[in-house]
Amino acid sequence: MSNTHKGADKHKGNSISMGAVPLSDLLRLPQGPVQLSNYDPRVTTGFPGAGKADAAPATDALAPELNDLQERLYANGRARGDQAPRILLVLQGRDTSGKGGVIRHAIGLVDPQGVQIKAFGPPTKEEHAHPFLWRVSRDLPRPGLIGIFDRSHYEDVLVARVARLVTKPVWSARYESINRWEARQIAAGTVMIKCFLQISAEAQKSRLLARLEDETKHWKYDPGDVDIRAQWPAYTDAYEAVLERCNTDHAPWYLIPADRKWYRNWAVAQILLEQLRGLGLAWPPGNFDVETERRRLLESR
User: In this predicted model, what pLDDT tens digit does every residue of 210-256 receive, in sequence order?
Assistant: First the structure.
């Protein structure tokens, strides 16, 4: 397989130096038809080191700036209320692609009090009684927070399509509903970062076998995962449709090669950092006179 990421390295998956090109640009999926077989899930596009041995130091090096920018985001949320921005990180991918790993290792670099995580499972009876975007709308991050969707509204054009939970006219109309909904959230101050974690069938099989061979991971194994693997081509078609039809200027998709866990975690953390930088957030000023408060404090007992 070849990697046709814009600006990506094309030399058999070797990592390249980022230089002045943001990773957000390198991994942003071009608009138009999508064929996932053109994207190699093992490449390490933009990684500044030589390989896995450099991954932990490279990822840890992001933490100080990430923490500073997240605290600025949180402070603006406290000071400016609904006028403050918020981040929504949407994580989509097949089973074992690493949504939980990203949350632990990439989002784990920032203060948890500024993070809001929601994992979406099958819709409940109450959720089924509402339009499909109702449940995700309830769990959007508040101003100043980084929200994480572990799976998302896209399940309603993925699982719903492949498992035939609704008819084709229903799920096919949802792409435009999603685009309009995302545009409204962005207009209201949400920075949306949509990451598709691309894993190969071989890597998925290896990870599922590892769960069977380690009794401490049996709780993570679901026999249904093998049944879903049999639908790999159908899910490929469904993901390609999502990545083509819901890849807009205001809410683009980032395709994250996910066979190498260490690269996947670094890449999502790096993209989050770049998006936070792009907000250009200053520390909000206090609504008091500093000298007056200093004098009062010094005079206090």
Answer: 999 999 999 999 898 899 999 999 999 999 999 999 999 999 999 99
Length of the chain: 301
For domain 23-299, the CATH class is alpha beta
The residue assigned the tokens 């699982």 is 159
Each residue of 113-145: pLDDT tens digit?
999 999 999 999 999 999 999 999 999 999 999
pLDDT at 5: 54
In the chain, domain spans: 23-299
Residue 15 pLDDT > 50: no
Cα 73 from Cα 211, distance rounded (Å): 38
pLDDT digits (tens, 9 = 90+) for 19-36: 589 999 999 999 999 999
- Tokens 């990545």 correspond to 243
As a whole number of angstroms, the distance between CA 152 and CA 92 comes to 7
